[in-house]
């Protein structure tokens, strides 16, 4: 397209000047000696031409970046075929994405905290619904990024099961996974089995000392894409017939656990191996416990911009772990002298109701809270959580006291040694108001679950954030979010798309 010059050698009348897109020209009057009337300067056309030339040089890199962003966007939307027929087809060849609502588990009926001599920790798990079987039936499953195996209470027959929201899953003989199946080999560590064995047994133990045992089963699972299309796929999971510990609490509000770790048996990995999704998933838990958040399978709902990413450490356990350099309460560092300069492991675990700190950091945090709130007195009679404080004024919700406390800050290594990476836990995401109106700390001592030197980030601190687990790139990312309106991510950042629009108009 030809470009019309801004000014010719002669003065251009204002009503005939061509439209200028993306450029604002400000004309300053030149007050001559003849009564202050405007008089054109001879150097003005040349100055404007130089300014326009510099402006075009400055915006050229921006236009190039926008072009690359659009090309990447188109590459993600189209799959090209060179085998004849149509040159391209919309969306074909791209992995699907699935959106699932999350629901907070209701408070279990039972012993009240004030009637007990030991702490009765209220559970804060979140669950979703998965359809399994033929015909497909719904099952409510706790989301757990800390374990790989999904299991459902099963009539196989059941030895120790609790009454759940749905009837027990009953497998047919052809649903039972044999020992020589690759999934069984993966689960059992490639052990040799006798030829007469007809099933693949499993047993899984959790940090709270509860456990589940059963056999592997394979059945149809139905998911609905974000566009409303139903997809059926094979899924291998645990047919659980023997639960122990807290898993036997009755009545239960869920039917089992949805394993989402980076292990080979997890749901995202199984779907990715079948080419159904990219090996990416995430969750967004609303800050308000009574509100519903959401989770997603696939990468369509991962924001392309504004995320903070940290690498995942490879280890023997199938957990999402990374390392943090220091932990602060506001501007005060909580790391003790013996730990100064040492890296602390951090695990993101949606299957944990609470956040856990190493003992030294935990005790340092309690000391900081007591020093920062002199009007609060520790109330050891409140057994809701291990550390509760009685305020000197009535408190109904965290909103009444959150302004009195500072955020917890987990500082990770900087990107390119310059850009800081911080996971901020606001007071409303680590404080809990008990039934007695006390302010309780939702961060616990990690030694209680065998994590003496590890930070575990649980549900209480994952609220108000979109957290993505990218197993393809081996990284974890997060961004602040209200978690109420899931949106497919734009592949072009806002400032580039706006610049591109102004250049094309």
UniProtKB/TrEMBL annotation:
Molecular-function GO term, any one: aspartic-type endopeptidase activity
Protein origin, superkingdom: Eukaryota
Keywords, comma-separated and alphabetical: Aspartyl protease, Hydrolase, Membrane, Protease, Transmembrane, Transmembrane helix
Key word Iron-sulfur present: no
Keyword Protease: yes
Ranges for domain Peptidase A1: 126-479
Active site as annotated: 144, 349
One Pfam family in the UniProt entry: TAXi_C
Membrane-crossing residue ranges in chain numbering: 57-78
Biological process according to GO: proteolysis
Cross-referenced Gene3D superfamilies: Acid Proteases
UniProt-listed PANTHER family: ASPARTYL PROTEASE APCB1 (PTHR13683:SF316), ASPARTYL PROTEASES (PTHR13683)
Family, per entry: Belongs to the peptidase A1 family.
Protein's UniProt name: Peptidase A1 domain-containing protein
Species: Triticum aestivum
């Amino acid at each position: 397209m030809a470009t019309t010059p801004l000014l010719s050698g002669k003065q251009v009348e204002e009503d005939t000047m061509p439209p200028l897109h993306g450029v604002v020209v400000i004309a300053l009057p030149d007050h001559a000696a003849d009564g202050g009337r405007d008089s054109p300067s001879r150097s003005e056309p040349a100055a404007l031409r130089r300014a326009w030339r510099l402006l075009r040089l400055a915006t050229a890199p921006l236009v190039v970046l926008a072009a690359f962003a659009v090309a990447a966007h188109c590459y993600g939307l189209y799959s090209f075929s060179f085998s004849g027929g149509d040159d391209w087809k919309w969306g074909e060849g791209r992995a699907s994405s699935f959106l699932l609502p999350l629901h907070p588990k209701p408070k279990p009926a039972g012993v009240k905290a004030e009637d007990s001599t030991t702490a009765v920790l209220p559970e804060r798990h979140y669950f979703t619904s998965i359809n399994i079987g033929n015909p497909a039936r719904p099952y409510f499953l706790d989301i757990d990024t800390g374990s790989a195996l999904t299991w459902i209470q099963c009539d196989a027959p059941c030895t120790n099961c609790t009454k759940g929201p749905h009837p027990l899953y009953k497998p047919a003989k052809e649903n039972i996974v044999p020992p020589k199946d690759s999934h069984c080999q993966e689960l059992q560590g490639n052990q040799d089995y006798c030829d007469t064995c007809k099933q693949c047994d499993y047993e899984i133990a959790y940090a709270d000392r509860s456990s589940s045992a059963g056999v592997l089963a394979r059945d149809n699972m139905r998911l609905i894409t974000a566009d409303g299309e139903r997809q059926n796929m094979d899924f291998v999971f645990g047919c659980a017939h023997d639960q122990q510990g807290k898993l036997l609490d009755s009545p239960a509000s869920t039917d089992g656990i949805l394993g989402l770790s980076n292990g080979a048996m997890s749901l995202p990995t199984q779907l990715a191996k079948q080419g159904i999704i990219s090996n990416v998933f995430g969750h967004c838990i609303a800050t308000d416990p009574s509100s519903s958040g959401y989770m997603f399978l696939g990468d369509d709902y991962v924001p392309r911009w504004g995320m903070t990413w940290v690498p995942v450490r490879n280890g023997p356990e199938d957990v999402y772990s990374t390392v943090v350099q220091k932990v602060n309460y506001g501007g005060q560092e909580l790391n003790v002298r013996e730990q100064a300069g040492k890296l602390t492991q951090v695990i993101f675990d949606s299957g944990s109701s609470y956040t856990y700190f190493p003992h030294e950091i935990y005790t340092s945090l309690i000391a900081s809270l007591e020093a920062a709130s002199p009007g609060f007195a520790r109330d050891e009679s409140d057994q809701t959580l291990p550390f509760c404080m009685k305020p000197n004024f009535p408190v109904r919700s965290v909103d009444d006291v959150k302004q009195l406390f500072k955020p917890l800050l987990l500082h990770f290594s900087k990107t390119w040694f310059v850009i800081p990476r911080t996971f901020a836990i606001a007071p409303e995401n680590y404080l809990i108001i008990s039934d007695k109106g006390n302010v309780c700390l939702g961060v616990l001592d990690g030694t209680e679950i065998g994590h003496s030197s590890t930070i575990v980030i649980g549900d209480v601190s994952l609220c108000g954030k979109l957290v993505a687990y990218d197993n393809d790139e081996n990284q974890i990312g997060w961004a602040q979010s209200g978690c109420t309106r899931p949106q497919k991510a734009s592949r072009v950042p806002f400032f580039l798309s706006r610049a591109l629009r102004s250049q094309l108009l």
